[in-house]
Amino acid sequence: MSSTSKPPAASRLAIDKNRHGQHTHEQHVRKPGMSDAITRDDEEKRPSNLTAQVYNALCRAVLRGDYPIGQSLPSEGELAARFEVSKPVIRAVLQQLSALGVIEIRQGKPSIVRRVSPRPLEYFFSFAMMETENGLMEAVQLRRGLETYIAQRAAEHIKVSDLKKLRETIKTMEAARNDSEAFIEADLAFHMTLAEASDNRLLMFLVQALRGTIHETVRMLHVRGMLPDRSATIARHVAIVDAIAASDPEAARLAMSAHFDASEERTMGSSLKGPIMLEPEQIIDFLERESS
Asked: Residues of the chain with pLDDT > 70: what percent?
């Protein structure tokens, strides 16, 4: 290969410094499991920040399946050698991936690749909802958009086992008419089960990610005296399940839309008493209980 020819795409390019402090390029043949290292193209296209480069490269490796779910990543030392960076850079990258829910950092052991979870989104939606005075209404409107479509899909894809779970949660709601917290929990369980029945994992993630904000929304409405007519609430849930059981997507969509008409009416009525100041501690406490 001449000095001006471009190395093959499958080549490994490691950057070393020579005695004069100048950079030279040493070509290596790509090895199995080493496809996540930083290449010359990465350095030309990505930011100069080493942490960002390593983070992007390691994300690509996980997305490609180089490290399947449940498999350990190489040790910090091995990753540092592979990417030719310091261990602190690797630790910073692993912390970012852990915050994203992609890996689990284990004390004294290599990190392990995790199944994706909605956990990071739960905190994101909690912060986003609390940023504005309209956060409560926006959360209800977001849920309407998601859950009317979810009800429609559930009518087309629901399993007998999921239909049984929905009916059981309605019975729980009926038994909890005089217990606000138990009623809220049963209501949440209904909507989570419905999301699972939609046969769409990403829709399920979004609804799960809204659990904390949904719980706090309902709790705040109760605090402000905007108590629902629980008999009417249960009746609306029954109408949703009946439409789904009949495999009628349009009826299921309309039943869920009617349910959110009532939710928006209560939220609007509460806002007339002044802006609803959500309590972040309550949301975080709920999320921590859910993860324990």
From this structure: 71
Task: Write the CB contacts of 116 (distance below 8 Å, at least 6 apart in sequence).
Answer: 101, 102, 205
Q: Where are the domains of the chain?
A: 11-113, 119-291
pLDDT band at residue 266, thresholds of 50, 70 and 90? low
Whole-structure pTM value: 0.67
Tokens 């806002």 label which residue? 271
Angle (deg, nearest 10), helices 201-209 and 211-223? 40
Under DSSP, the state recorded for 75 is: P
**Residue 112: per-residue pLDDT:** 93
**d(Cα 76, Cα 74) in Å, to the nearest integer?**
7
Fold of 119-291: Four Helix Bundle (Hemerythrin (Met), subunit A) (1.20.120)
Per-residue pLDDT at 133: 74
CATH code 1.10.1760.20 for 11-113: no
> What pLDDT band is residue 151 in, cutting at 50, 70 and 90?
very high
Alpha carbons 252 and 239: distance in angstroms, whole number: 8
- Helix (H) or strand (E) holding 221, with range, is helix 211-223
